[in-house]
Amino acid sequence: xxCGMFIFSAVDTQAKFLTGTMHPVQIxxxxxxxxxxxxxxxxxxxxxxxxHTSRARLQIGRGALAIGxxxxxxxxxxxxxxxxxxxxxxxxxxxxxxxxxxxxGEKIGIYRWSAVVVGFIGALIIIRPGLGVIHPAVMLVVIxxxxxxxxQVIGRLLADTDKTVTTIAYTAITGSVLISIPLPxxxxxxxxxxxxxxxxSMAVMAGIGEVLVIKALEVTEAVVIAPIHYTLIIWGTxxxxxxxxxxxxxxxxxxxxxxxxxGLFTVWRGEKKRGT
Length: 276
What we know:
Number of helices: 13
Shape: globular
Distance between the termini: 27 Å
Strand content: under 5%
């Protein structure tokens, strides 16, 4: 899982680099091609039984949400420093808590609701709305996080009947089909061999990262590996500094610490409740 997060951060970095010369739709298409390749590898291992589902509409809906959140994120990182964008995505667990209560009927106690409030305070510290410190495009990241959370809620509904690998396979296939629809309107051939190399690297790494995360979910409980997701801020900051000479300011760091602390508390409370 840790390797998967490191690789996905590299994929985001390459995507941000490409936004200077290429449309986000085309960037996501190449990234999706890599994810689809990872699923094809899994199909070779598990066979076509991987695609058996009785809830195809939910699977397709989840795939549509996944591609929507990915597109919004890439549109955002054209203008927002990578570390700031990654930090803003960490509001997703709090959206997930709210949606879990509203859609799944999950009972949320005062402690977890408090964590949601604290988490959103951390997000406000990062975004600082009205102060003009961070580009307004950061709100696209917040919307992407909300869409991502909706996708996760659907994933929970599907978990009762479908395997994790089946859900991820449908997400990759659906996303690939949908992102291919607008592609002809924005397509441009790579301008240089370097650009082609980055696109190819991004696709390959996305596929490898997907396989690593799937395998991690197969052998370990999600609650155990969920905190590893927060290592994205480490890699995002590192890549942002090395490639784009970007460093988060003290407010972004403060907000990130608050969000991560509240998020880890939410994970801990959820696991404690399941254990009682």
